[in-house]
Amino acid sequence: MVKRTFWLSQIEKLWGHRPVIWLSGIRRSGKTVLCQSVPETEYFDCELPRTRARMEDVESFLEALKGKRVVLDEIHRLQNPAQLLKVAADHFKDVRIIATGSSTLEASAKFKDTLTGRKATLWLTPMILRDLEDFKNTSLDHRLQRGGLPPFFLEKEPPERDFQEWLDSYWAKDIQELFRLERRASFQKFLELLFVNSGGIFEATKYASPCEVNRMTIANYLKAVEATYVAHIIRPFNSHKPTEIIAAPKVYAFDTGFVCYHRGWDVLRQKDKGSLWEHFVLNELMANLQSRTVNYWRTKQGREIDFVLPLRNGQVHAVECKLSEKDFDPAAMIAFRQDYKNGRNFAVCRDVGHPFDRRYGPLEVRVTNLQDFVAEAAKPTGAKS
After folding, report:
1. Among 153, 144, 160, CA closest to 276
2. Is 349 helix (H, G, I), strand (E, B) or coil?
3. Which residue segments constitute the domains of the chain, with CATH numbers given?
4. Strands 363-368 and 345-349
5. List of residues 6+ apart from 44 with CB closer than 8 A
6. pTM of the model
7. Once rounded to an integer, what is the mean pLDDT over residues 357-368?
8. 92-126 burial by CB neighbour count: b if 16+ within 10 A, else e?
9. pLDDT (tens digit per residue) in 257-276
10. How far, in Å, CA of 186 to CA of 207, rounded?
């Protein structure tokens, strides 16, 4: 069993603040194995009828676990999971609980009470840089092509059949149980198009016709895949200037492996790696920040910043993702900073070892690798290097 050190440290840290952790993440992202690797825990699989029966008397169940660390895997299988967690948080504060699910808490009809103030949340994303070290395979090309689901990453041969099996399971166990959507063929066509067009501007009308549904249904599909972490909606950052794109979002698929599979990329070319690198940077950023508060910026003239990170103090970080520092063109950042003065500029490049600053006229850019960039971005507002 691989010990995923980053995520284990996050669990221990969160338990220091709240007795209950809601651990969510995409199907097969490794939630169960991660929970089983947490030291000194009692594990309960809520998919088993006998386990659910044992939990029917909530108080007696928790009374027997006083002072213990507990995993409640797939807790949404319970009839009233929110009640159990609420009772635990309010009356059994010495019981440390990890409850797992495949979606945001708000997506499940069984969680009308989202336990505000009673729980901490941890989103297990596809594998990050720290995971590659723990799995003893730091080949980024391997990670980009196979993706970040541990079972797929560990396969010796490309797991082509596994991708389709995953999609079938996702429809049956996540989409049907949470959203009761109909027209499986239309939904799967939507997913295929989403993976093929990942990282591009999303226009519902371009999906409606090939999926044989209307725009409203496409909008519902998009909400479902966002709530279950299959897609990330990156909205434009703007101040409603006439030159800016203000409405059209970009949509990124959750995993580079699924992007490669649906695009038919058996061997990665250099131009393929550029798009996948952008996806990987986004995954790393969201994992470390534990937030989806990421935007992009684009003008009607075509100047674009890959990612924009708005901060609470009014500053805005601008982020460009490049395979090589030689590919970085500062023109878009210069244009961006004419309107948004405050914040730092980053060029996150795969081929950079030690970070350095480079000046382009009045613009200063931090040219950095991914690991150092994330460390900078994750610092509290106002913290200095």
Report:
1. 144
2. strand
3. 5-124 (3.40.50.300), 129-289 (1.10.10), 303-377 (no CATH)
4. parallel
5. 51, 54, 55, 70, 71, 72, 73
6. 0.93
7. 95
8. beebbbbbbbbbbbebbebbeeebeebbbbbbbbb
9. 999 999 999 999 999 999 99
10. 10
